[in-house]
Amino acid sequence: MELLPIIKALSDETRLRILNLLKFGDLCVCEIEVLLDINQSNASRHLNKLTNAKLVEYYKVNKYVYYKIKEDILKEHPFVKEIIDSEIINLKVCESDLTKLKKYKQSGLSCDDLKEGKICLN
Amino acid sequence: MELLPIIKALSDETRLRILNLLKFGDLCVCEIEVLLDINQSNASRHLNKLTNAKLVEYYKVNKYVYYKIKEDILKEHPFVKEIIDSEIINLKVCESDLTKLKKYKQSGLSCDDLKEGKICLN
DNA sequence: TTATCATATGATTAAAAGCGAATATGTTCA
DNA sequence: TGAACATATTCGCTTTTAATCATATGATAA
């Protein structure tokens, strides 16, 4: 993959936030929506950009599409790994995103429950 | 320095080309203009962006302003060093930029000579 | 001091990127 | 099959970024 498209994919706060979450495990689109508090088309678009830059990939489970960080890219481009592992964490938003993520994971609930408001992440 | 402004400063081909040249030594604005074949205001603006992101700094010598890579940033943000040292080189444009740079340096001429067309870098 | 030169900065235009609302697609489940 | 749902895509709009031309600034040198 070309360098510039990768850097461009990384040059957006929402996309860094997505990578920050995916670092701790795969997530489907609707989980990302709720965790980042962004709307559906926005989530989908940003995920598309990350996919095009080959930073993430996806797989389908039932009606859900799960996204995950593409391991290849981390090997091919160590600077991406460096950013995801050591830099993103310093963004303030990412801290609170992780708080939400932790709360969600500890709840043991699924993304169906999320949408139904069975858990408040704030 | 904040992460996002740094990544944004890196997400432009011209600016990567500038960093690629500066890696081999400080250069004044008019040298960068000629080596990258871009106009003066363009060069100045991109250098300004790099300066704002604290990726480069400058000093004045006579009527010239020399730019150099800011060493601090490379220590603080290893991913920047990684990009400059190992990634930029793979950009095609940067190869030919370096050919020009080498030709210029080997000529022993100054930037005054450059403007007067005393050397052809193509 | 005045002319010259290197660089920076406005102002404008053009191109790219991002966003929300609505719609399309494709899957699941009753 | 048809209704419901998850995700992707399109449209129109706004914001951001880049490029160019012209002008301003600030230093140098005659």
In total, the number of strands of chain A is 3
What fold name goes in the CATH topology slot of chain A? Answer: Arc Repressor Mutant, subunit A
Largest sheet of chain A: 3 strands, antiparallel
Widest beta sheet: strand line-up of chain A: 1-3-2
How many domain units of chain A?
1
Overall mean confidence score, pLDDT of chain A: 94
Count of separate DSSP helical elements of chain A:
8
What is the molecular shape of chain A? globular
Are there runs of chain A of 5+ residues with pLDDT below 50, and where?
Answer: none
**CATH architecture term of chain A:** Orthogonal Bundle
Query: Helix/strand-derived class of chain A?
Result: mainly alpha
The termini of chain A sit apart by 38 Å
Order of helices and strands of chain A: HHEHHEEHHHH
Largest interface (C-beta under 8 Å):
A-B, 18 and 18 residues
Radius of gyration of chain A: 14 Å
Percentage of helical residues of chain A? 55-70%
CATH class of chain A: Mainly Alpha
CATH superfamily descriptor of chain A = Winged helix-like DNA-binding domain superfamily/Winged helix DNA-binding domain
**What percent of residues of chain A are in strands?**
5-15%
Oligomeric status of the shown chains?
homodimer
Question: What report would you give on this structure?
Answer:
Two copies of one chain form a homodimer. Chain A has 122 residues and is mainly alpha-helical. Chain A has helices at 3-10, 13-22, 29-36, 40-52, 71-76, 78-87, 92-107, 111-115; strands spanning 27-28, 56-61, 64-69. Chain A has a three-stranded antiparallel sheet with strand order 1-3-2. In chain A, α2 packs parallel to α7 and α3 crosses α4 (40-52). The A-B interface holds A 3-4, 7-8, 10-11, 13, 16, 77-79, 82-83, 86-88, 90-91 and B 3-4, 7-8, 10-11, 13, 16, 77-79, 82-83, 86-88, 90-91. Chain A binds a DNA duplex (30 and 30 nucleotides) through residues 8, 12, 14, 28-30, 38-49, 60, 62-65, 111, 115.
